[in-house]
Amino acid sequence: MNTTPVIEILAVGNELLNAGVQDTNTFWLCRLFTRLGGRVRRAVLLPDDEEAIAAEVKASVLRAADAVVVTGGLGPTADDVTVSGVARATGAPLRLNEEALRMVRERYDALAAKGVVSAGGINPAREKMAWLPAGAVPLANPAGTAPGVLMKAGRTSLVCLPGVPQEMQAIVETSLHDFLAEVFTGGRFIERRLIVDCNDESLLDPLFRRVAADYPGVAVKARAGLFAETPRLEVFLSVTAGGGEGEGDAEEALEKAAADLQRLLAEAGFGA
Amino acid sequence: MNTTPVIEILAVGNELLNAGVQDTNTFWLCRLFTRLGGRVRRAVLLPDDEEAIAAEVKASVLRAADAVVVTGGLGPTADDVTVSGVARATGAPLRLNEEALRMVRERYDALAAKGVVSAGGINPAREKMAWLPAGAVPLANPAGTAPGVLMKAGRTSLVCLPGVPQEMQAIVETSLHDFLAEVFTGGRFIERRLIVDCNDESLLDPLFRRVAADYPGVAVKARAGLFAETPRLEVFLSVTAGGGEGEGDAEEALEKAAADLQRLLAEAGFGA
How far is CA B131 from CA A242, B50, B176, B224, in A? Predict the structure, then answer.
């Protein structure tokens, strides 16, 4: 059993690449999946280009990611092409999804009742948001009009979420809850940070290498700052522990590796 | 002549994907290249994994990007594998580059003279930063110790920069200046923003489609906010104009498209 789900993230929008907007969804999702015990293997920013989206999703499915999470490009306008890109990648034809249509209609009716939009009901642009790949399930969007999309392609779960951060987060925290509970079965990302009284990575590298060789499951990573700005350096040791028998072992290896590194640093004359 | 350079960005570091650090280099570079008249086609975050870096760089070269800019993974420690990933992607063997070695030595000697590091000179970890792919040119780093790297692979220029933002920016603004002047020959990204007194994209979509169809070179993109939070919506029309004869035409098309959209919006009863 694969206890560490492997995730790939795809953020779509011309504005992310022409610096009209700084993508923050990727970071938010990386933090979420890491905390849940998953491993984000890659994250990609792409323009509003159906072909590029289709190629990227197809590659993720071929790499057998456990989940591919796409943000952006779900709206009613012609430049929103994420769902058609996913349909193209998976070969699942777009169909009018009755449940999604109901969700969209209800949202616009409610917005019209509050006077936020001039009229409720459906028009062609609104209906577009209910055309989903065959077999997909819509995810209710409590903060906007475009439903999210959940579907399977091979062993990979594909999740499409809106690009507006509040809508993306609202779907994750409500409609996507059951899916996340199913995929992330209690694993954890555990990290220990050592602050070393030395800012010269070139002197510390032999020690890092030794610990990394002794504990293959433990990632050892120094984070460099700017020389002279700080006389210290941070070293992170981390493991991703699956939610099962192996978890205690992984945590034990992490603690031993941290203790070993601390001892090696002390022997070399560096406080940590 | 291709007057709009196509750029791909690659940001490397486990900490970017496990949310230890939020990547800001990509946004900074997207803004720079867009302002210079380039088009950033995609941006990828990858872990410190030589094979993944090599595969991504190879794919960028096969897509014939004009430039691939990689940030992160240039340091002295074992987890810094960007340069070996690039070597693997291009087939250029790693060689000790004498100019890079001189740069690294000079930086450590200067840091030692200021008391920032305990000793100057070269050790194996420091020397590692001077092993570059054959044919590569080192880029002096005024803010750190790892030189940047510039090389060609087919028609693609590969640029490797450190992940520490101040070092990355310092190299771009000094050592990379001539390269940028050569690649970006005066093109411009021009954008017009219309603020529409309507927050319902589904009503505006037919107008956007009409303008987009009339002006194929002009990108029309609505940026949705949260319903009810604002009664307005932003629409961006943009062109990337090459630095040559076509520039005036592109700008003229943009102005005409913006005027047309404003007229269509007014006819439909929306202020803009």
Answer: 38, 15, 19, 48
- Residue A228 has a pLDDT of 59
Chain B CB contacts of A201 below 8 Å = 75-77, 125
Closest CA–CA distance from residue B70 to any residue of chain A (Å) = 14
The beta strands (E) that lie in chain A are given as: 6-12, 39-46, 67-71, 94-96, 131-133, 137-139, 148-153, 156-161, 188-196, 219-223, 233-241
Partner residue facing B144 (CB), from A22, A118, A226: A226
Place of tokens 């009810």: B228
Q: Find the helix or strand (DSSP H, E) in which B100 lies.
A: helix B98-113
d(CA B210, CA B196): 16
**A148-159 pLDDT per residue, tens:** 999 999 999 999
Q: Is residue A58 a contact partner of residue A89, using CB atoms and an 8 Å limit?
A: yes
Instruction: Please enumerate in sequence order all residues whose Cβ is within 8 A of that of B244, keeping only pairs 6 or more positions apart, or say none.
Output: B1, B3, B185, B186
Whether residue B71 has pLDDT greater than 50: yes
Q: Which amino acid would we find at residue B136?
A: A
**Residue A221: which of B24, B166, B78, B45 has the closest Cα?**
B78
Tokens of A153: 């392609």
Nearest to B34 among A19, A30, A203 (CB): A19
Q: Do A202 and B126 touch (CB under 8 A)?
A: yes
Minimal CA separation from A202 to chain B, in Å? 5
Query: Closest residue of B to A227, CA-based?
Result: B144
Structure token pair of residue A154: 């091979």
Beta bridge partners of B6: B39
In our burial notation (b when 16+ CB lie closer than 10 A, e otherwise), range A211-237 reads bbeebeebbbbbbbeebeeeeebbbbb
What's the whole-number mean pLDDT along residues B72-91?
Answer: 96
The reply to whether ipTM tops 0.95 is no
